[in-house]
């Protein structure tokens, strides 16, 4: 009789499978992992992956707050929302002893404001808000956000549909913080944004890079994943890291406090923290690699876009954080007025 040799992951799940806990529920945005990675995990562990999507961080936390019986095993969100998750006791503490690949995380992405002691999260992807433009269509040099107000853009500018990022772009143009609670300053940024409206062609989160590639827009403020996709198709496109400063973001992964199958979540995190698998994840995701051990495994054609540039100065990078309720409400009003002025909804 032949003995079957179990991999460490499969062995870890032998008991869980016998007790019926053979499912991993991941709750995050769409397309965060290569389908083959999920299939490999299922094959190696015998644990089925159920992938559940949300559209906004706010949708996620509302469902997590209402989830009394525990539906989700692993969640990935934006950094600013993670602060709320931790403060409300919705995240379980990470047992690093169960993550043998934990040391593969790049120290740059650890000990952030939302998890200063690295108790709750594993960073999965990071990025900056970037300007990209077509030098064949634009005959002036773009160096920062302030250049986007140039009338020469003439309704050929696309921006992402994120009110804190775009309102923050106006704040940065005024040399102010993304996270100011000064209502007068936020109001001034709103008035400045209205002056940008004539240059706006599109406000869209999804596939904005396609409109730059097609020529529908000539310049865009985009997420790192969109920049990666655009530059892979058109290497001649110009990338601008705004002189006013970089908006920097990280996507933390966490295990909910009431996760029904935390064993599966730990095994999955350790699975993707493997250097080679992590590289494949970031090539698919299009965001900066947060696992330094994965950097050498990233294909050379992607490496320039998926590893954080050496010239980035951490002191010049600012993350969007939670602000006062009054400031948040004003940001929402500023955003609504700006979109109305731009003729977008």
Poorly predicted residue ranges? 1-7, 13-20
Radius of gyration in whole Å, from Cα?
Answer: 21 Å
Largest sheet: 6 strands, mixed
- What is the mean predicted local confidence, pLDDT? 90
> In percent terms, what proportion of residues is strand?
15-25%
From the N-terminal CA to the C-terminal CA, the straight-line distance is 67 Å
Any key phrases for this structure?
345 residues; alpha/beta; D-Maltodextrin-Binding Protein, domain 2; 6-stranded mixed β-sheet; 5-stranded mixed β-sheet; 11 strands; globular; disordered N terminus
Task: Explain how this protein is built.
The protein has two domains: 20-126 and 249-306, D-Maltodextrin-Binding Protein, domain 2, CATH 3.40.190.10; 128-248 and 314-341, Periplasmic binding protein-like II (D-Maltodextrin-Binding Protein, domain 2, 3-Layer(aba) Sandwich), CATH 3.40.190. The strands form two sheets. Strands 1, 2, 3, 4, 10 and 11 form a six-stranded mixed sheet that branches. It is α/β, with parallel strands linked by helices and 345 residues long. The chain is built from 13 helices and eleven strands. It is globular, with a radius of gyration of 21 Å. It has helices at 8-12, 14-18, 35-45, 57-66, 79-87, 163-173, 183-196, 208-214, 224-233, 262-272, 275-285, 300-306, 325-341; strands at residues 23-28, 48-53, 74-76, 121-128, 130-133, 157-159, 200-203, 219-222, 238-240, 246-254, 317-319. It is 37% helix and 15% strand. Helix 9 (224-233) packs antiparallel against helix 12.
Map the helices and strands.
Elements: H1 8-12, H2 14-18, E1 23-28, H3 35-45, E2 48-53, H4 57-66, E3 74-76, H5 79-87, E4 121-128, E5 130-133, E6 157-159, H6 163-173, H7 183-196, E7 200-203, H8 208-214, E8 219-222, H9 224-233, E9 238-240, E10 246-254, H10 262-272, H11 275-285, H12 300-306, E11 317-319, H13 325-341
Parallel strand pairs: 1-2, 1-3, 6-7, 6-8, 10-11
Antiparallel strand pairs: 3-10, 4-10, 5-8, 5-9
